[in-house]
Amino acid sequence: MNNFDFYNPVKILFGEGKTEAIAQEIPANAKVMITFGGGSIKQNGVYEQVTKVLKGFKVVEFGGIEPNPKFETLMKAVELARNEKVDFLLAVGGGSVIDGTKFIAAAIPFNGDTWKIIKGGKEGVIEKAVPFGVVLTLPATGSEMNSGAVISRISTGEKFAFGSPLVYPKFSVLDPTFTYSLPRHQVANGIVDAFIHVTEQYLTFPANAPIQDRWAEGILQTLIEIGPKAIENPTDYETRAAFMWACTMALNGIISTGVPTDWATHMIGHELTAFFGLDHAVTLAIVLPSLLLETSDEKKLKLLQYGERVWGILNGTEDERVSMAISKTHDFFHSLGIKTHLSDYGVTEDQIKPIVDRFAQRGWKLGENKSITAERIETILKGSL
């Protein structure tokens, strides 16, 4: 196991009715800006619950944060928050709203070009951020308990991740009943997103980290077990509670401590979203099976472990067991109603080249071994057609 530092200050308020505790978590004299997405929270009762709790506070609202939150939209929120002298944010929504709110929190006090927060480098270092809390309505990204975010920019067709210890939420409310009204495809996306968050931290190479491995395998087994139930039985509280907590635990830093991590599937998937507007989870489901095939030699030991412990694959040669593990993964995504080929979404082989060219121009080498070059990305994407 590698050396590591672990820090996670997020207070989790889990369970039905926990929204009522929000007022105790926000400074008494705060001016609060509620951030949200397309307005579903005003239809499912969440908005009413949140605003009722905030009656003693001065409140500003900013809605319209998109899936794959856009820099251009978020800057409008930054301008509003600055003008209104907002000093606390409350993100009410899923990962996109939370990610966007992290950027807003960092950008409000930032001097200079705020895009540099996302692009990184010395000029983009975050020195302070406005505190914020979360009311989670769509389990998927784990953003409610981590310090990372992914932001897109329309004008340049780019999508990048950024992070800082200063943009951990102060608290996150996880009420499983808030997921009851979610469309089936959003629940399926959340399950896939969490599943691949785990594989990015687990399907690498052995690091003598049995606790992290077993924890990761437990999350994967849970998602496989409860995934279909969560889709078919939207008001089953216990299933939705397990779904919500699994998504949070998949990316709160616990299972990545002391182990190598990959993230190539995400990096490639981000470009598919930037170029074609595909849902984030869909891009991951498209890329992962092909990526595992391309890297099966270097991931062989963990793929064999994954096949045995998660899928119960015990028979056959090593190569056969690896192939079966990848097939089982692909079939699981399909069982949730997720299509896993680029051609399913109208993407052709000719459209792959600009993505490959972008990786080549950046000179990025992806994966836990930094062995995935632009040439291998081309192979992975062609294998995803």
**What class would the helix/strand composition place it in?**
alpha/beta
- The H-level CATH homologous superfamily of the largest domain, spelled out, is Dehydroquinate synthase-like - alpha domain
Fraction of residues in helix:
40-55%
Strand content of the residues, in percent?
A: 5-15%
Give the beta-strand count.
8
- State the name of the first-level CATH class of the largest domain: Mainly Alpha
Largest sheet: 6 strands, parallel
N to C succession of SSEs: EHEHEHEHHEEEEHHHHHHHHH
Global morphology: globular
* Gyration radius, in Å: 20 Å
Helices and strands, with pairings:
Blueprint: E1 11-14, H1 22-25, E2 31-35, H2 46-53, E3 58-62, H3 71-84, E4 88-94, H4 95-107, H5 115-119, E5 132-138, E6 148-153, E7 158-163, E8 171-174, H6 184-202, H7 210-232, H8 237-249, H9 264-276, H10 280-294, H11 300-311, H12 318-335, H13 353-362, H14 374-383
Parallel strand pairs: 1-8, 2-3, 2-4, 4-5, 5-8
Antiparallel strand pairs: 6-7
Overview of this protein structure:
The chain is an alpha/beta fold. It has 2 domains: 168 residues, Rossmann fold (3-Layer(aba) Sandwich); 200 residues, Dehydroquinate synthase-like - alpha domain (Dehydroquinate synthase-like, alpha domain). Helices cover 46% and strands 11% of the residues. The chain contains 14 helices and 8 strands. The strands form 2 sheets. The protein has a 6-stranded parallel β-sheet with strand order 1-8-5-4-2-3, sandwiched between helices. A two-stranded antiparallel sheet has the order 6-7. The protein is globular.
